[in-house]
Each structure stands twice: as C-alpha cells, then as structure tokens.
Amino acid sequence: MLPKNYRIQKKNEISSLLQSKRRLSSTNFGLGFSSTLLPNFRLLVVVSKKISKKAVVRNLIRRRIQSVFASLKSKDRLPSGLDCSIIVRRSEIQKLDYDQLLLEITTACRRLSTKNY
Questions:
Q1: Among candidates 50, 34, 53, which has minimal Cα distance to 42?
Q2: Are the C-beta atoms of residues 61 and 95 closer than 8 Å to each other?
Q3: For the domain 4-114, what is the CATH code?
Q4: What is the pTM of this model?
Q5: pLDDT digit string (tens) for 95-106?
Q6: For the packed helices 55-74 and 98-114, what is the interaxial angle rounded to 10 degrees?
Q7: 27 near 62, Cβ under 8 Å?
C-alpha cells in the first residue's frame, strides 16, 4: 500500500483533480492528472459500483492498482509533482494479473511523461 503522503485524501483536492481537463485513457481505466507544487507523486483510485456491487472486489482492484504504483515508486519511475486519478472503467480489470496491470499502467505513465504538461 502507498504511504499517506502519496495518496490524495482531502475532499477539495479530490474534486479539483476529478474536474481537471487533462486526461489520458487506457483500455481499462482513465487517467486524470494535474501538476502540483508538492515534490512527490500522489494517487487517487476510483472504482465505482458499476464495476462490481461487492466492496470486496472493488477494494481488491484498488489495492492491486496501488501496489503497482508502490512498486513503480520504489523504482523511481513515477513523475514528481503530479496528482493522478485513476478511474476504473471496465470490469475486466479484475481478471488481469499483476504483470498485465503493471504493463498497462507503465505504458500510461510513459505516455504521461512524454506529454509536456
């Protein structure tokens, strides 16, 4: 799990990030982001009830995504000074194993770092 200083938890920060116009999309999730003055990368993962009615499944998806970002953080492959929101769009994401999820997220982060936002 990511440490608290790498997660977005305040309501006003969540709403401003979700209203941000800068977005990328992947096959299973959407990625919204905004730049900040903070030195570290912060993450927000949103899994709606459309994906699964069971909270256990939604929390499992959330924990898997956060673990991928934790491994990327340990390898210093996350851009600094960004707030990022991941909105899960397809229920097929729960069928992906860790390596497939890692590949999809790293390609999205690579696309994010190549764009000059």
A1: 34
A2: no
A3: 3.30.230.10
A4: 0.88
A5: 999 999 999 998
A6: 60
A7: no
